[in-house]
Amino acid sequence: MTTEAGTAPETRRPLLELTGLRKEFGGRHGSVAVDDVSLTVGEGETLALVGESGCGKTTLTRLLLRLLEPTAGSVRFDGQDLAALAPAELRRLRRRIQVVLQDPYSSMNPRLDIAGIVGEPMVTHDPAARGRRGRAYVRERVGELLESVGLDAGIQDRYPHEFSGGQRQRVSIARALAVEPRLIVLDEPTSALDVSVQARILDLLAELQQRRGLTYFLVSHNLAVVQQVADRIAVMRQGRLVEVGEAAQVLRRPRHAYTRQLLDAVPVPDPRRGRRFRAAGATDAAGVTGGGAGAPGDGEAGDRG
Amino acid sequence: MTTDQPTPADRTAGEPAAPKTPQPLGTAGTRRAAHAPGGGAAPAAEPVLEIADLTVDFRLDTATVHAVRGVGLRLAQGETLAVVGESGSGKTATALSVLRLNPQPPCVYAGGRILFEGRDLLTVPEKELGRIRGQDIAMVFQDPMTSLDPLRRVGAQVAEGLRHHQGLSRAEAGAAALEALDEVGIPDPERRFRQYPHELSGGLRQRVMIAAALVGRPRVLIADEPTTALDVTVQRQILDLLVTLQERHGMAVLLITHDLGVVAETADRVAVMHRGEVVETGDVLDVFDHPADDYTRQLLAATPRLELA
């Protein structure tokens, strides 16, 4: 998860290859949500997909999970074209790609206990988890998984509502690990969490990646989080990738104007760049109090529906 | 709001004296400096809003949650005071108390005073508070979609306060509302005036909320996570807009946020809340440079920073 020390993407074996992906949503007022996206994610790296709401990042994520059929283009995982697989083969391959979603409150069945939640993917994908001996096998494995994400193995009989947001996100991570995936899609995994909890979850993800050689496809709008964990960054806007590159490169020397705009907009936790200092320094000249009053940029101005 | 609190037993037994402490500075057992250097003192100007020793309880079936425990805040004319904290810290319960907007029951205002123009807002009759709400003290919430009425046109919603509070005619209030939409930077305000909230993007909706809040020229604006639901480039524009309007109209702003970046960019002073108490208050520079409280230090350390140099 380090930026500069990591292997260059060219030398990594490609695990996920998106080629010319396109997704149109139909109807008379049809729109193109994903437009000619090509992207490679190497084994063991963390690629961060960054963009604002409506840019198509969720659609792209669903395409690579094959929860949506692309209008054009292909998704290859470990050299296999997902579209060419028979349903049974696709099911076998699915266990290698797991997801951790933003909201740990709504991504768990409230009526399943923790053992049921973490064990469910095992029952689906692993024959040893079924049948008479299955239960003991699942409990043992779930216990190990819970410990590997920093939880007590003894919480298996408890229910999601008994846990805090950070603990629930750990349960989600344990569930994703249950079937030994190679790629984990992390969809805004810390956006719903407080900052102190967020930092610990990011540390856990880094540790798991190192120990298990995982590949992460991280979707995030938070550039500070992305900087902490990403090897490479892909910036998406209006369905297209406007910039892809090494994380340090994209953050420090962005080539696209939109990337620069995103970086400039991030609030900086340094009061010397804040209101009073801007006001005292260049009140009139910088247009802080000018008549423009911050007219909406194109991210905001659009009509809806 | 209360998820990260310890168990009810801990809360009730742990600090029975907390609501009565005149200056609640931090949880028991926390080592701390005697005061926040230079910043902890009250602002020089006469406060426009003063919260003293506020105690807010939520009486649930099985337990009482002490959401706010003896909070004191002073908001001076024209300044921005940011209240920062994590979920469950009591920051929103404090903000909602100013206009008595916490749901009652289960909420009980168990103690303290909120002084505005010589009156205690915790005890003024509901009718009198109704005149203050939206007129003298206005509020902007996190989610503009749920705070706007989906069935009414935008213009009418901005004009509503003027008709209600100042008795303006439909035409007069409409003209003022149109001007307010223009002032908050909404392009083509005549067209937007006649539209419904669903026809606007999130950023435009939040501009409408700000127009509705400020059209009556309140002395105090309470903004509860006003940019949390917005994209980062839109957030930047809304924060700039709030600062611009504040400088133009001179209102005091009580800004509730979880984001220290937003605090640094907009606030004059900051109050850090943790488990229902203000653990530290001070000038933004002092608090960021020399945090006196352990929790403030932890919060600052956990805040991810974009290092671009």
Order of helices and strands of chain B: HEEEHEEHEHHHHHEHEHEEHH
Per DSSP, the total helix count of chain A is 10
Structural class of chain B, please?
alpha/beta
* Percentage of residues in strands of chain B: 15-25%
Uncertain regions spanning at least 5 consecutive residues of chain B: 1-43
Using the alpha-carbon principal axes, give the shape of chain B.
Answer: globular
H/E series of chain A, N to C?
EEEHEEHEHHHEHEHEEHHH
Q: How many E strands of chain A?
A: 10
Please bin the fraction of helical residues of chain A.
25-40%
Amino-to-carboxy terminus distance of chain A: 40 Å
Strand order of the largest sheet of chain A: 6-7-8-3-9-10
Q: Mean of residue pLDDT of chain B?
A: 83
What quaternary form is this?
Answer: heterodimer
Gyration radius of chain A (Cα, Å) is 21 Å
If strands are numbered along the chain, what order do they take across the biggest sheet of chain B? 6-7-8-3-9-10
Uncertain residue segments of chain A: 2-7, 281-295
Query: N-to-C terminal Cα separation of chain B, in Å?
Result: 37 Å
Subcellular location (chain B): Cell membrane
Region (Disordered) (chain B): 1-43
Protein name (chain B): Peptide/nickel transport system ATP-binding protein/oligopeptide transport system ATP-binding protein
Membrane topology (chain B): Peripheral membrane protein
Any descriptors?
heterodimer; A: 305 residues; alpha/beta; six-stranded mixed sheet; 10 strands; globular; disordered N terminus; B: 309 residues; four-stranded antiparallel sheet; 12 helices; 36% helix
Please give a quick description of this structure.
Chain A: Belongs to the ABC transporter superfamily. The complex is a heterodimer of chains A (305) and B (309). Chain A is of the alpha/beta class.
Describe this structure in words.
- The complex is a heterodimer of chains A (305) and B (309).
- Chain A is an alpha/beta fold and 305 residues long.
- Chain A has a domain at 106-180.
- Chain A has helices spanning 57-64, 87-94, 114-125, 134-148, 165-177, 195-212, 223-229, 247-252, 257-265, 275-282; strands spanning 14-25, 31-42, 46-50, 72-77, 80-81, 97-100, 183-187, 215-220, 232-237, 240-246.
- In chain A, strands 6-7-8-3-9-10 form a six-stranded mixed beta sheet, sandwiched between helices.
- In chain A, a hairpin with a 5-residue loop joins strand 1 (14-25) and strand 2 (31-42).
- In chain A, helix 4 (134-148) crosses helix 5 (165-177) and helix 5 (165-177) packs parallel to helix 6.
- The longest helix of chain A is centred in the C-terminal third of the chain and has 18 residues, at 195-212.
- Chain B is globular, with a radius of gyration of 20 Å.
- Helices cover 36% and strands 23% of the residues of chain B.
- Chain B has a domain at 151-217.
- In chain B, the strands form two sheets. In chain B, strands 6-7-8-3-9-10 form a six-stranded mixed beta sheet, sandwiched between helices. A four-stranded antiparallel beta sheet of chain B has the order 2-1-4-5.
- Chain B has helices at 8-14, 91-98, 126-132, 144-147, 154-166, 170-183, 189-193, 202-214, 232-249, 260-266, 284-289, 294-302, and strands spanning 47-59, 64-76, 80-84, 107-116, 119-120, 137-140, 220-224, 252-257, 269-274, 277-283.
- With 309 residues, chain B is of the alpha/beta class.
- Residues 1-43 of chain B have low confidence and may be disordered.
- In chain B, helix 6 packs across helix 8.
- The chains are: A alpha/beta (305), B alpha/beta (309).
- Chains A and B meet through helix 6, helix 7, helix 9 and helix 10 of A and helix 8, helix 9, helix 10, helix 11 and helix 12 of B.
